[in-house]
Amino acid sequence: IERETQLKEVLKIMGLNSSLHWLAWFTKSIIMLELSIIPMTILMCTSVMTPKPIFNYSSLLIIWMFFTIYATSVITFCFLISVIFKKSTTAGNVGSILFFITLVPFNQLSSKFFTLPYIVKVLYCMLVNSGMGLGVTMMLITEGNEEGVHFISLFSRETDLGFSVGEVMISMITGIIVQMLLTVYIEKVFPGDIGIPEPWHFPLNPFVKFMKKKMGYDTLINRDAILQERRRIS
Q1: Which residue from 110, 127, 114 is spatially nearest to 163, judged by alpha carbons?
Q2: What is the pLDDT of residues 5-44, one digit of tens each?
Q3: Degrees (nearest 5) of the Cα angle 8, 10, 13?
Q4: Per-residue pLDDT at 30
Q5: CA 157, 162, 166 angle in degrees (round to 5)?
Q6: Eight-class DSSP state of 199
Q7: Each residue of 105-125: b (16+ CB within 10 Å) or e?
């Protein structure tokens, strides 16, 4: 809605930094989700409601960390959708479809996961819902073995999937970083109807400036400008 009404560009004109704007949205969203994650984690890891909890042997802190990472991945996924589309209704409809599509690899490839190459497994877990589904499946397998997931066994590949819960979490964090980088890039290059777009290669600008300074390119330009000015005056 902010993109559709150009409210964000108005806030930029008023001096609001773009990173601060994203941080405010993230803070609001993660607090709202934590209000669900924390009680849910307590109920799944303790015998408050049932005699035997779902995660009876696993560390409560790891379960909370896993679902917090998943919540963060959902937030950054929504950020990415918000900068791709110009209309809020289109973003809501298409974003919802894409959100459920990220669960398709888990439904189709979960039985063949152990045969996949390692890089494909990482990409598989970078998807929002597929990573969550695989992580929960692996934690339930360890619960069935009466071992659970703990910090000491976070990266152990005791399951037959050839992957660990820790690797799933790291892959999900990598997906979060990629989604946020794409969000910032698309927002800069395609700001909207009244925004000032950056060139597609703007992330390379600091490197180009550094190389020009190192090679003395700026100094040569300044010398040429001074000589031309002297010639003009004389």
Answers
A1: 114
A2: 877 777 777 877 888 889 999 999 999 999 999 999 999 9
A3: 115
A4: 96
A5: 50
A6: P
A7: bbeebeeebeebeeeebbbbb
Q: Which DSSP state fits 16?
A: -
Structure tokens that stand for 42 in this block: 């307590």
Separation of CA 58 from chain center: 26
* Structure confidence at residue 3 (pLDDT): 79
pLDDT above 60: residue 217:
no
Could you give the C-alpha distances from 95 to 6, 77, 109, 212, in angstroms and in order? 20, 9, 23, 42
Give the pLDDT band of residue 221 (cuts 50, 70, 90): low
Residue of 148, 159, 172, 162 whose CA lies nearest to 62: 148
Give how far the C-alpha of residue 205 lies from the chain's centroid of Cα atoms, to the nearest Å. 24
Q: How far is CA 19 from CA 92, 97, 185, 204, in A?
A: 23, 28, 12, 19
- Tell me the mean pLDDT in the region 169-178: 95
Q: How far apart are CA 43 and CA 61, in angstroms?
A: 13
* Residue the block writes with tokens 């995660």: 55
**Residue 96 buriedness (CB in 10 A; 0-12 / 13-18 / 19+):** exposed
Residue 163's closest CA among 125, 107, 132?
125
Burial class (CB in 10 A: 0-12, 13-18, 19+), 62: buried
